[in-house]
């Protein structure tokens, strides 16, 4: 052992200077002047609101996607000491001194910068030359649209970073597969593939497209492994389980962890939690939790309750009544029962209170001990203020003539007896003897006489006329197959009634019985509800000045004005390098045509290129064309407002295809030395034009220097581009 000490310890390090140089250039291009402009830029007005809510720990729901990307932006604010106090209400608003602009924009900028070396490494792993890999990285470096999108508090650069990281990790894993399966580096890159995929999906659901592409490629590779007779059944099983763990189980667990952290951080009630169920709202600090704390858990005969409709769309509302009656005749000439109106009211109100009454007894108070109401029990619902009974009968509802009118019964001494018995059906029961519980139980009320189900029909978009105070209609739905949420209600506020006297009953306080709802709502229950809201909650998509169609993106017939200086001509636009975009389209077309030509020729047993070159052409181009297709074509099926930045992930894959096609043309179609020299000269001239266009549009990429009106007009290379020219 002492012999080893006689020799010096030598550490040999290999440094790829191409990679180092590209990383440095990427950082400079994305981080230079990052705090400029010190004003809200385009969608920063949108994402900034969520960052402020994270800083204040206030719950929110964003229907655009999962929370991981928002948390990364909030991390930048946290590291910069942001307190969340800024009003994100206007694009162009100057940031106050408490807003750490550089820190908030740092993570997107770093992600955009690291996309440059990632592009280089991806082409190296695809077995292309270092020259081609360097060209791909430089094209990403000089792409104006990617620079613009990565320099602000936006998510696209983070999404593209994780997408490229997932592709690179899988390629490294696949290349190690041939000679070092199950080694430490093999496991590292396989696991990193799953982690990067889950992060991409966690930033935006667009990441799901690349995740599905990699799963498909992994499936094809494993299918080829099955045919390898050198692999035993045990070995194949181990490979399958390893891929299942890394590419399915770990991404799912990580995706759940994003929501766990999100829900842990956002524990305070806010304006967004009103669309959630009562149980979810009660699990948040403040808001409904302050009202429901101390409520009895079990609904009993004599309980005083408010009933909230579970659907909660387009707004939350509670079962409500007031002294006004339905008009004797409606505007269309149909008659009504002229009974007391019952509606669904979107605000908390004293007229939302109802008393659960035992039909066999007259008392409206809770007995001692309380007699709980169970699934299947028959009850009467007495309106707390007017003391009239919830009723329905064979009279057409005012807005839904095929459904029954719901009212509070008034005895007019005519041949219309009261029909006020309702059967309680607990939809989410575990057994047929379940007790009706505050907040937790979702119930239907089935009319005993007619089998109609109490339903809030106003969620179809119609509200009652002026005589109904524009409140939402409540009906008895006769044909009630299934459990549509508009037919389901839950008790939100609850107290045990103690007095038979009406005046005293109106002022009764909550029972002191303690019940902590948050302990009854598990993380999986909260996750399931929040995930469903994200997927189903749809904001009204309105036409935006800078919205565009997917067809406009390929030829870059559109742009987005991100920021305009209030006094000078300085401005920032999302505009791509038009030479790069055109070249990417030509490369995609050339790859498709050449591939079809090769396939037809190979079918005729004519092999124009060596087999290894063909395999490289198929695998490298397939990933790039596949990445472009899965990140672009789905937008033709989406019914949402689209913007040019949605195309950037697809564009990134298309840019990677350019050097693949150029290398293939240089190696296999340029036969003579003269042709190769001419081709190299053309490539250099083409790349010079890419750099020239980058420099030309840099003032509207970085926002400085300020340009004159004439210079701005000169940048309008297409009539469809909206370059802002200030009129003095």
UniProtKB/TrEMBL annotation:
<dbReference type="InterPro" id="IPR032421">
    <property type="entry name" value="PMT_4TMC"/>
</dbReference>
<dbReference type="GO" id="GO:0004169">
    <property type="term" value="F:dolichyl-phosphate-mannose-protein mannosyltransferase activity"/>
</dbReference>
<feature type="transmembrane region" description="Helical">
    <location>
        <begin position="246"/>
        <end position="267"/>
    </location>
</feature>
<comment type="similarity">
    <text>Belongs to the glycosyltransferase 39 family.</text>
</comment>
<dbReference type="Pfam" id="PF02815">
    <property type="entry name" value="MIR"/>
</dbReference>
<feature type="transmembrane region" description="Helical">
    <location>
        <begin position="100"/>
        <end position="120"/>
    </location>
</feature>
<keyword id="KW-0808">Transferase</keyword>
<dbReference type="InterPro" id="IPR016093">
    <property type="entry name" value="MIR_motif"/>
</dbReference>
<dbReference type="GO" id="GO:0005789">
    <property type="term" value="C:endoplasmic reticulum membrane"/>
</dbReference>
<dbReference type="InterPro" id="IPR027005">
    <property type="entry name" value="PMT-like"/>
</dbReference>
<keyword id="KW-1133">Transmembrane helix</keyword>
<dbReference type="InterPro" id="IPR036300">
    <property type="entry name" value="MIR_dom_sf"/>
</dbReference>
<dbReference type="Pfam" id="PF16192">
    <property type="entry name" value="PMT_4TMC"/>
</dbReference>
<feature type="transmembrane region" description="Helical">
    <location>
        <begin position="154"/>
        <end position="174"/>
    </location>
</feature>
<feature type="transmembrane region" description="Helical">
    <location>
        <begin position="68"/>
        <end position="88"/>
    </location>
</feature>
<keyword id="KW-0256">Endoplasmic reticulum</keyword>
<dbReference type="Pfam" id="PF02366">
    <property type="entry name" value="PMT"/>
</dbReference>
<feature type="transmembrane region" description="Helical">
    <location>
        <begin position="578"/>
        <end position="600"/>
    </location>
</feature>
<comment type="pathway">
    <text>Protein modification; protein glycosylation.</text>
</comment>
<feature type="transmembrane region" description="Helical">
    <location>
        <begin position="678"/>
        <end position="697"/>
    </location>
</feature>
<feature type="transmembrane region" description="Helical">
    <location>
        <begin position="644"/>
        <end position="666"/>
    </location>
</feature>
<keyword id="KW-0328">Glycosyltransferase</keyword>
<feature type="transmembrane region" description="Helical">
    <location>
        <begin position="616"/>
        <end position="637"/>
    </location>
</feature>
<feature type="transmembrane region" description="Helical">
    <location>
        <begin position="186"/>
        <end position="203"/>
    </location>
</feature>
<feature type="domain" description="MIR">
    <location>
        <begin position="296"/>
        <end position="359"/>
    </location>
</feature>
<feature type="transmembrane region" description="Helical">
    <location>
        <begin position="208"/>
        <end position="226"/>
    </location>
</feature>
<feature type="transmembrane region" description="Helical">
    <location>
        <begin position="9"/>
        <end position="32"/>
    </location>
</feature>
<keyword id="KW-0472">Membrane</keyword>
<dbReference type="InterPro" id="IPR003342">
    <property type="entry name" value="ArnT-like_N"/>
</dbReference>
<keyword id="KW-0812">Transmembrane</keyword>
<feature type="domain" description="MIR">
    <location>
        <begin position="370"/>
        <end position="427"/>
    </location>
</feature>
<keyword id="KW-0677">Repeat</keyword>
<protein>
    <recommendedName>
        <fullName>Protein O-mannosyl-transferase 1</fullName>
        <ecNumber>2.4.1.109</ecNumber>
    </recommendedName>
</protein>
């Amino acid at each position: 052992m002492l012999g080893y000490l006689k020799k010096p310890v030598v550490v040999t390090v290999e440094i790829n200077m191409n990679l180092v140089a590209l990383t440095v250039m990427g950082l400079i291009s994305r981080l230079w002047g990052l705090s400029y402009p010190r004003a809200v830029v385009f969608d920063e007005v949108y994402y900034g609101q969520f960052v402020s809510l994270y800083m204040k720990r206030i719950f929110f729901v964003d229907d655009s996607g999962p929370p991981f990307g928002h948390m990364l932006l909030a991390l930048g604010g946290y590291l910069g000491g942001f307190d969340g106090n800024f009003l994100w209400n206007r694009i162009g608003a100057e940031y106050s001194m408490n807003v750490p602009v550089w820190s908030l924009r740092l993570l997107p900028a770093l992600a955009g910068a690291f996309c440059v070396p990632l592009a280089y490494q991806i082409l190296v792993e695809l077995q292309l030359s270092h020259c081609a890999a360097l060209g791909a990285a430089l094209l990403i470096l000089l792409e104006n649209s990617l620079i613009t999108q990565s320099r602000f508090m936006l998510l696209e650069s983070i999404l593209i970073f994780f997408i490229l990281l997932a592709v690179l990790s899988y390629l490294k894993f696949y290349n190690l597969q041939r000679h070092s399966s199950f080694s430490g580096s093999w496991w590292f890159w396989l696991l990193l593939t799953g982690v990067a995929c889950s992060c991409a999906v966690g930033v935006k659901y667009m990441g799901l497209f690349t995740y599905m592409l990699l799963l498909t490629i992994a499936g094809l590779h494993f299918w080829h492994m099955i045919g390898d007779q050198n692999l035993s059944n045990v070995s194949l099983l181990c490979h399958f389980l390893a891929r299942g763990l890394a590419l399915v189980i770990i991404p799912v667990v990580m995706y759940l962890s994003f929501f766990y952290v999100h829900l842990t951080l956002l524990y305070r009630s806010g304006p967004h939690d009103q669309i959630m169920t009562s149980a979810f709202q009660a699990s948040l600090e403040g808001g409904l939790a302050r009202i429901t704390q101390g409520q009895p858990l079990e609904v009993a005969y004599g309980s005083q309750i408010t009933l909230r409709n579970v659907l909660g769309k387009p707004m939350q509302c509670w079962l409500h009544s007031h002294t006004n009656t339905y008009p004797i005749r409606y505007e269309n000439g149909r008659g009504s029962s002229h009974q007391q109106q019952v509606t669904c009211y979107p605000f908390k109100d004293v007229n939302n209170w109802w008393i659960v009454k035992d039909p066999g007894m007259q008392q409206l108070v809770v007995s001692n001990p309380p007699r709980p109401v169970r699934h299947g029990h028959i009850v009467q619902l007495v309106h707390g203020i007017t003391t009239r009974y919830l009723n329905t009968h064979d009279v057409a509802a005012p807005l839904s003539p095929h459904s029954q009118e719901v009212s509070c019964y008034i005895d007019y001494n005519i041949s219309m007896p009261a029909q006020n018995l309702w059967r309680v059906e607990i939809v989410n029961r575990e057994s047929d003897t379940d007790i009706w519980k505050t907040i937790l139980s979702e119930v239907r009320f089935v009319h005993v006489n007619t089998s109609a189900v109490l339903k809030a029909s106003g969620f179809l978009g119609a509200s009652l006329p002026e005589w109904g105070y524009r409140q939402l209609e409540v009906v008895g739905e006769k044909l009630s197959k299934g459990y549509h949420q508009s037919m389901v209600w839950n008790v939100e506020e609850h107290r045990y009634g103690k007095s038979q006297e009406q005046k005293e009953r109106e002022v009764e306080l909550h029972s002191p019985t303690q019940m902590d709802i948050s302990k009854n709502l598990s993380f999986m229950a909260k996750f399931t509800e929040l995930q469903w809201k994200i997927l189903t909650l749809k904001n009204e998509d309105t036409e935006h000045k800078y919205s565009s169609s997917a067809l406009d993106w390929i030829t870059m017939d559109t742009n987005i004005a991100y920021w305009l200086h209030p006094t000078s001509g300085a401005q920032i636009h999302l505009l791509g390098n038009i030479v790069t975009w055109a070249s990417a389209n030509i490369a995609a077309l050339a790859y498709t045509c050449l591939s079809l030509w090769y396939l037809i020729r190979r079918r005729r047993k004519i092999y124009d290129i060596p087999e290894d070159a063909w395999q490289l052409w198929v695998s490298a181009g397939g990933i790039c064309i596949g990445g472009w297709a899965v990140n672009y074509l789905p937008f033709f099926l989406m019914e949402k407002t689209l913007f040019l930045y949605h195309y950037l992930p697809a564009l990134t894959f298309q840019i990677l295809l350019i050097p693949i096609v150029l290398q293939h043309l240089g190696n296999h179609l340029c036969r003579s030395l003269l042709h190769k020299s001419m081709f190299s000269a053309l490539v250099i001239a083409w790349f010079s034009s890419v750099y020239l266009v980058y420099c030309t549009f840099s003032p509207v990429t970085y926002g400085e220097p300020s340009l004159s009106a004439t210079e701005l007009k000169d940048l309008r290379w297409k009539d469809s581009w909206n370059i802002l020219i200030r009129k003095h």
